[in-house]
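thought: fold this chain, then report.
action: predict
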Amino acid sequence: MKKTLFFAGVLHILCSGMVADTYNYELQTIGSVEFTGEDSVLEEHLKTFGVRANKRLSHNWMAGLGYMKTNNAKFENISAKTDIDRYFINAFYEIDSNKEYTPYLITGLGYQDFERELQNAKSGIVAQAGIGFKTDITQHLQFLLEGKFLRDFENATNDFIVSAGLSIPFGYEPKSAPKPIVKPEDSDKDGVVDSDDLCPNTPFGIKVGPDGCPPDSDKDGVYDYKDRCPATPVGVEVDENGCCLDSDNDGVVDFKDKCPNTPKGAKVDENGCCVDSDNDGVPDFKDKCLDTPEGFDVDQQGCPIVYNFMINFDFNSAKIKSKYLSKIEEFAEFMKENRTYKAEIQGHTDNKGSNRYNKKLSLQRAKSVYDMLIKFGVEADRLTYVGYGEEKPIASNDTESGRAKNRRVEAQLFTK
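observation:
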């Protein structure tokens, strides 16, 4: 289906009519060597061949369709091969030359189709850009040579391609007799007469378009000769140098910044948001305890204050099941590595039963955890235990899920 659409496009180009100064159409056949980038999963050198059909739009501009084929491309680290088909819409800008060759610029956007998508090699959008030249072999045959960069957006790779081939120009039309030369005024000497010049004060030596204005390739309102960031995405607000705004100076431009008011000097991620290395909810620039283990509640400075052992006891029991010992051991290791802390082991219950009963049961459960921490090597003089019964709920006792959260044993941390 893709090839059918491609060759239908070629037929459209060849059958469309237009008037040009030299020839109107050209057919090209090309052989290439592709040097893959370091991030590519394919072999370093790929051999490709292709065909192009182009149509002249103006004296300098041509446009057309292209097709490139790579057979049996090898993957880098596995014994597998794949065919690659690429389809392009291309634009050419021919640079006027009085010599025997014609230099030109080429740019194109297309689609790359992998026959086998292995090692994260996926089909998707590609773009190419480069330079080349053509020279006449005969009136109806030209030799061409090109160097291009290929950007694979889907796989985030950059390749370099060297191509050579033959071009067949046709559709010549006789040139009309030259008209008498009337030299109109061109105040800024940019090659565009004042009556047509929309930018009459262009600095001397700056290349301009037919309207007398310098090119603005990325359409950001800053001419290329002033633009320090020439590839700004369309529609993004820029400064006087043509660069994307970064209002909070965090290194992430505003159109990518999901946290636009980051404090000055704070380390941020690729989204412009403050880094929180230990995922405790306190960003690193505020965090005085950067390596807090998972499972701790922390204070505003990111330092641990409460550890929930997440233990479920059987009804009317203070015996710790073996599956919960890892949580107790984890806290014991933290205490042994952070000797500036003391801890109060706190037992809590829901509101079922009498307050006196709940006090006693919560104390027994807290002591069970306390005793186990000592077995795991925590000094007894750094630990205390207490039973609070139903006095300190963290959820509603009106629901089963709330009561389950209230039946807990926690460690409240203190510094010595």
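thought: worth noting. The longest helix spans residues 355-375.
final: tokens above.
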